[in-house]
Structure formats: structure tokens, C-alpha cells
Design goal:
This protein has about 130 residues and is α+β, with helices and mostly antiparallel strands. About 40% of the residues lie in helices and about 15% in strands. The strands form 2 sheets. It has a 3-stranded antiparallel β-sheet, with no helix packed on it. A 3-stranded antiparallel β-sheet has the order 4-5-6, with no helix packed on it. Strand 5 and strand 6 form a beta hairpin.
Length: about 130
């Protein structure tokens, strides 16, 4: 993305229109290209895709040299299945319902399924159990 912007003090300035953004957040810079300079954004996407493919190819070649099987480096990465409970044992004390976790010991309904939040509920309300 830095082919299209220049860093000036603590700001990022667009080379095409001179628009100045505070900081160096590349996500904001990419969004600026997408909204204001669609042709440049498409060019950026093509460059990014080429660079990413080269990185993957280089990783595969490196793995071959080291004697690993030639498979995609991210192929065996386990993906989280949406709607599936995490393996954290704290989930055994709750029933999952849409975006809520319902405590099996009381009538509490917690927003989300974060294990830390659920564990804190158990510690504060059900320490004796």
C-alpha cells in the first residue's frame, strides 16, 4: 500500500490526491483507495495478489527443500466451525443459544460464549458448587 502513500510526520498522505490521514493504519489507507481511487485500488489488489502468491510459492519451495511434503502451508490449519462449542471445559456448565450462553445452574443469560466471561460467572455465583 505504501506505493500509493507517503509518510509525513505522523500522517499518511495519498500520492494521487494529497488527502492526509492520521497515523499509518494500512486498513484505512486501503479503504481510501477503494472509495476514492477505484482504478488504483484494483491495481493495488492485483499487486497484492501477485505478492501473496509469490509468498505461498516460496513457502512451498522452502518446505520441499527441507524435505516436507509439498502441500499448501495453510491447508492443514484447523478452521473454527461456526456454532460449535469451544473445547474449554467451562462450556460444560452452559447451554449455548444463538449469541447467548445460559448457565445450567441458575437463570443467568450471558451475551456471547467467551470462556473468560463464563468462568468469571461461575467463580462469582457458583464457587460453592
Amino acid at each position: 500500500v505504501w506505493d500509493y502513500f507517503v509518510k509525513v510526520d505522523s500522517r499518511s498522505c495519498c500520492n494521487k490526491c494529497g488527502f492526509s490521514l492520521m497515523g499509518y493504519n494500512t486498513s484505512s489507507l486501503i479503504k481510501h483507495l477503494e472509495n476514492r481511487h477505484t482504478d488504483t485500488f484494483r491495481e493495488y489488489q492485483e499487486k497484492y495478489e501477485i505478492a501473496w502468491n509469490e509468498k505461498i510459492t516460496h513457502s512451498e519451495e522452502k518446505m520441499n527443500v527441507l524435505g516436507f511434503e509439498a502441500e499448501h502451508p495453510y491447508q492443514n490449519r484447523k478452521r473454527r466451525v461456526q456454532g460449535r462449542l469451544n473445547k474449554n471445559p467451562v462450556h460444560n456448565f452452559f447451554t449455548r443459544q444463538d449469541s447467548y450462553s445460559n448457565c445450567n445452574h441458575c437463570s443467568s443469560h450471558m451475551l456471547g460464549h467467551n470462556p473468560t466471561t463464563l468462568a468469571k460467572h461461575l467463580e462469582s455465583h457458583h464457587a460453592e458448587q
